[in-house]
Amino acid sequence: MTVAAGGEGDQAGFAALFGVLDLLAGVAVRVGGGWGVDLLVGRVTRAHHDMDLFVPSAELDEALRRLGAAGFSVVDDETPCRVVLASIRGRVDLGGIDYRRGGHGVQADASGDIEIFPAWGWTERVVAGRRVTCLSAEAQRLEHRGYPTRPSDAADLASIAHIDEPARFDPTVRRVEDDEADLVEGIEEASDRLLEPFGAWPLPASCPESKAAERARTAATLVAGRPPVGFARVEVVDGHPHLGQLSVLPEYGRLGIGTSLVAAACDWARRRGHRLITLTTFADIPFNAPFYRRLGFRHLREEEIGPELRQVISDEADLERFGRCITMARTLPDGDRSAAADGWRSHQRA
User: Fold this and answer.
1) 98 and 79 in contact (C-beta within 8 Å)?
2) Is 80 exposed, middle or buried (CB count within 10 Å of its CB: 0-12, 13-18, 19+)?
3) Which residues of 256-276 are buried (b: 16+ CB within 10 A; e: fewer)?
4) For residues 174 and 228, is the Cβ–Cβ distance under 8 A?
5) CATH fold of 2-159
6) Which of 73, 76, 85, 280 is the most buried (most CB within 10 A)?
């Protein structure tokens, strides 16, 4: 989508941004942050601390070479995810993005935490006769979620409040695809950061044996969105489906995605003839046990816990130091038991 905004009089206001873009001519640069907001509205709305620019990972070295030749020096290096540079021209926060099939971009840091830039999240603006690619208003609104709002964030959101775009984010739940396994892992890492305010982060790393057992138990992995922004992993424990993990990227939280994933996992199990689905979770964190309780899960009685589920609980014992953990279950309505003949294992990574 291309929208003409602003006139020649805007050139002076955008001079700092355009000057850096000129240095990177020929590099596929895209603009986010506050300058991206300004491009959307066609005028400079506030003073900016830095320029949030994104380039393909394969072009990051060339972009750094050019900025270095122009007098920029590196002040923070998190290659290949992010490099911050500064000069008398200003400060540039340069992010490397790995573009995947379909044009979706992924930015991953050393910890495995990821940020996803969907193909639909970019748009073009023409300001002062210059065409620039920037984050769309829909993407900007999502990017401003998942962390406390600062005054500058509130100002940015107010600046684009009038921009009415057709929604392009599709949260449909589907089966995971083979080339999305690393995204699922990154979503889990990013989602775990939501536990930090509750003193439950970083979570202890699972030992290789526990990870291998988890993979062996996995019967289905369901994801929401394309590219995925959340997932539910359904395992089989004591012959019952077990919700081993539910994770949603923080910026896509409170949009009903977690609820949709739980509903899809329950429906997947129900249609295969199962009457019960279990999970383990923190008892007192609002988006853990209280969330599942609202979705019909109840505290599982001690006598209902089978030997394999007891082993899962034992494997997760280290989590107890962050808070009380409980085991929960939800009774499922009668399903199509003919589907159960397919068998759990035939649905590995379904």
Assistant:
1) no
2) middle
3) ebbebbbebbbebbbebbbeb
4) no
5) Beta Polymerase; domain 2 (3.30.460)
6) 85
**Secondary structure (3-state) at 349:** coil
What integer pLDDT is reported at residue 166 of this predicted model? 87
> Could you give the angle at which helices 33-41 and 151-159 cross, rounded to 10 degrees?
20
What CA–CA distances, in Å, run from 88 to 25, 44, 50, 70, 80?
20, 20, 12, 10, 24
Contact between residue 110 and residue 78 where contact means Cβ atoms under 8 Å apart: yes
Q: Which two tokens stand for residue 179?
A: 């080339």
DSSP state of 24: T
DSSP-derived pairing of the beta strands 90-99 and 51-56: parallel
Establish how many alpha carbons lie within 13 A of residue 145's alpha carbon, considering only the half-sphere containing its beta carbon.
15
Longest CA–CA span in the chain (Å) reads 75
pLDDT of residue 3: 38
User: Which pair of structure tokens corresponds to residue 39?
Assistant: 């491009």
pLDDT of residue 148: 78
Phi-psi region of 251 (alpha: psi -120 to 50; beta: other; left: phi over 0): alpha
| Rounded Cα gap, residues 135 and 144, in angstroms | 12
Pick the closest to residue 10 from 130, 132, 152 (CA basis): 130
Distance CA 44, CA 258 (A): 37
Residue 58: alpha-carbon gap to chain centroid: 22
- Domain boundaries 173-347, corresponding CATH code: 3.40.630.30
For tokens 């009668």, what's the residue?
334
pLDDT along the chain (350 residues), means of 10: 41 90 97 97 95 96 97 94 94 95 88 88 94 97 86 95 92 95 93 90 83 92 96 97 97 96 98 96 96 97 94 93 96 63 33
| pLDDT at residue 12, as a whole number | 76
Neighbours of 298 (CB within 10 A): 11
Calpha distance 268→261 (Å, rounded): 10
- Model pTM? 0.87
Structure-derived torsion over alpha carbons of residues 175, 178, 179, 184, reported in degrees to the nearest 10: 50
Query: Which residue's structure tokens are 């065409």?
Result: 131
